[in-house]
Design brief:
The chain is of the alpha+beta class and about 120 residues long. The protein contains two helices and six strands. It has helices spanning about 40-55, 115-125; strands spanning about 5-10, 15-20, 60-70, 80-85, 90-100, 100-115. β4 (about 80-85) and β5 form a beta hairpin. The longest helix has 16 residues, at about 40-55. The radius of gyration is 15 Å and the shape is globular. The model has no long low-confidence stretch (mean pLDDT about 90).
Length: about 120
């Protein structure tokens, strides 16, 4: 795994919180960028989806993203806090990644069960 999950908790039924650290030897940093390694935005979004999937104990894929804002660069070895709250029955999540008091990334994410996504994809013309 290219990041380490330090903590995952659900302090309330509709509240997911996790703490992760981005491993310095992550392949995401290889070539992105050689003189100043930066975690790509897609990797940040994947961490959010992984945390939600783990909390729900389901295999989930990102279906859609809405109003995503990247506000801070993430480098190797940084600890990040992920907070996600379901909206509209749980298919849509509002999320925020922070590093200490600073916002890193926020937005909303629609998730789909991996099996459902594969079935839908197989039926497309």
């Amino acid at each position: 795994m290219w990041y380490s999950l330090l903590d995952l908790e659900m302090p309330a039924p509709n509240d997911i919180r996790a703490r992760v650290v981005v491993n310095g030897d992550s392949p995401w940093f290889s070539g992105h960028f050689p003189d100043r390694p930066i975690l790509p935005g897609i990797a940040q979004l994947k961490m959010v989806a992984d945390v939600i999937a783990l909390a729900r104990q389901e295999r989930l894929w990102i279906k859609r993203l809405h109003r995503v804002k990247f506000k801070r660069i993430v480098g190797p070895g940084e600890r990040l806090d992920i907070h996600a709250v379901p909206m509209n029955g749980g298919a849509l999540y509002s999320f925020r990644i922070t590093h200490g008091p600073e916002d890193v990334c926020s937005g909303t994410m629609s998730l789909e069960n991996q099996q459902d996504a594969e079935t839908t994809h197989d039926q497309r013309p």
